[in-house]
Design a protein that fits this description.
Length: 251
């Protein structure tokens, strides 16, 4: 991206799009407290897009470039149509890939009964192979690429820590987010195997499954915790529990 790309225009467009949505629109439970402004909060968009709130905030403020995969995820989270999606990519100075229109998908009767019972839960039924592929690229391939960038130096130094986080669906999958769970399970398997491979090298690799919502209640009935409540878990895996390959955090 060059310095002439109007990042402020990108941020204003993102703010406009999230202001037009409500938690109910995207399947989130309504919070009890009043909202200072209409629409989704930044942290809600970030969590739905599986990116950090800080990263998304920087995008809106024009202080960070957005990759094409992240733009694609944001377009889906913000319910953009094809024209709006193309405009989003144009503002970011990226080339938008073609969007493939899909025919109406039929949900199996048993799964529809599950969805009917989960009236407060986002009904995300992903039955197309491309939905699974997207999550595999985002979660598994992304983790592998990041690891390849730092692991050689860690091996050479004989020290380092690699911690991979997924939702609890990587161990106990939920049908309505089957595509996300499938990719998370693949990442979990890869991380646990990496832990075994690195045994004795001084480099720690571990998987953390979060059975909670962070800051925003995305899953009805699950506890909502703050980032500072989770940080000791990561610190322990980095320091005193380096022999552990996996930890499930339930709050």
């Amino acid at each position: 991206m060059t310095g002439t790309v109007p990042l402020n225009d990108l941020g204003e467009f993102l703010k406009k799009c999230r202001a037009e949505l409500s938690p109910r629109t995207v399947g989130l439970p309504e919070s009890g407290g009043p909202r200072r402004a209409a629409g989704l909060r930044r942290e809600e968009v970030a969590q739905l897009a599986s990116i950090s709130t800080d990263y998304y905030t920087r995008l809106e403020q024009g202080r960070m470039q957005a990759s094409a995969p992240v733009l694609g995820v944001l377009a889906r989270v913000l319910h953009l149509n094809d024209d709006e999606r193309s405009y989003l990519f144009q503002l970011a100075g990226r080339t938008a890939g073609r969007t493939r229109r899909r025919g109406r998908q039929k949900v199996q009767a048993r799964l529809q009964r599950v969805l009917d019972d989960l009236t407060a839960t986002p009904a995300i039924v992903q039955s197309d192979a491309s939905d699974v592929q997207h999550e595999i690229e985002f979660q598994l391939y992304g983790a592998i690429a990041a690891t390849k960038a730092v692991l050689p130096a860690m091996r050479e130094a004989g020290a380092g820590t690699l911690l991979y986080t997924t939702g609890a669906g990587s161990l106990d999958p939920v049908p309505v987010v089957g595509n996300v769970n499938a990719a998370a399970a693949a990442l979990r398997n890869w991380a646990v195997n990496l832990h075994e491979e690195l045994d004795g090298t001084g480099v720690q690799a571990a998987h953390i499954a979060l059975d909670v919502s962070i800051a925003v209640a995305l899953i009805p009935g699950s506890p909502v915790i703050q980032p500072e409540d989770i940080s000791p878990v990561y610190w322990d895996l980095h320091t005193t529990e380096r022999d552990r390959a996996e930890l499930v955090f339930k709050g």
